[in-house]
Amino acid sequence: MTATLIDGTRIAAAVEAEVRTEVARLRRDGIRPGLAVVLVGADPASASYVGMKARMCEKLGIHSLKLELGEETTTDQLLAEIDALNADDAIDGILVQLPLPPQVDKKAILEAVSPVKDADGFHSTNIGSLILGYDGLVACTPSGIMEMLRRSDVALEGKRAVVLGRSDDVGKPMAMLLMHAHATVTICHSRTRNLASVAREADILIAAIGRKYLVRRDFIKPGAVVVDVGANRITDRDEVIELFGAESPRIARFDRAGYIWVGDVHEREALEVASKLSPVPGGAGPMTIAMLMRNTLEGARLRRGLACAESA
Ligand code: GUN
């Protein structure tokens, strides 16, 4: 079997076009959704993500505010900035880019963001709403994966779904969303025994464990749908050749940048066994940004007591 690729970039562009239309409609009523992204420190990858989010806001007509704070910022200083953003009427969504420097109390910061402005969906109120099936803002990567599966006609009802990884931002909310969609869900983690054989039971396999090409051929049931959520940087050219073959366009990409991103799934092996694969890059990544834009729009509506849009 040769899997078809789920094109997250194309699906994200469709979601973004819908958000742009809705933003234009709100702006005609005098409402301009606004997103604040907060970056603490100078981690280059985080700075690049924050820049991408701000640029996407501009493209869709969303007001964006980029707050860049020094590496030495304390919890109290960051809490004061969040209080100000909570009170700022021009801001509907607040995202504090993770990871935060070690001196900052991450839990206190995520809990300080007003739940109606919680564009990341990380606040305990929103996690609670997700578990109970109430309206609320949902974490962007898992909601983006659900949107991608829906728009790729992947049926979930009654299917076996296995989520590799139990993180608060991906694994746990992902499992909850799949369960709400009537899949039978198993969550695996670092202590799971016989990981490959559990993964091989999945009709839908979500790999979000953070170990490059952990998911090999023997993890995948023939015909399964595989979604790769890993983000691992490869800086060794020989490793790129071994993974993708000497003819792969990724070699040229590596030569330009000095690194490439790979996921948790061994792509070549997965393509031989799965029926559909959401790859890295070009899968869950672009969907995450699209859903952040949608959450900002929903935040603008929620705060004003307006009805949320139905997803397409
Ligand atoms: N760092 C990497 N991904 C994310 C994300 O989705 N949200 C936040 N806040 N930080 C991140």
Report on this model:
Helices cover 44% and strands 15% of the residues. It is built from 12 helices and 11 strands. The chain has helices at residues 8-28, 44-60, 75-87, 106-112, 124-132, 140-151, 171-180, 195-199, 237-244, 249-257, 267-273, 284-303; strands at residues 4-5, 34-40, 63-69, 93-96, 160-164, 184-188, 204-207, 225-228, 232-234, 260-262, 276-278. It is globular. The protein binds guanine. Guanine binds next to strand 4 and helix 6.
Q: Tell me the major beta sheet.
A: 6 strands, parallel
Output the helix-strand order: EHEHEHEHHHEHEHEEEHHEHEH
CATH homolog superfamily of the largest domain:
NAD(P)-binding Rossmann-like Domain
- Provide a count of the helices: 12
Strand line-up in the sheet with most strands: 1-11-8-7-5-6
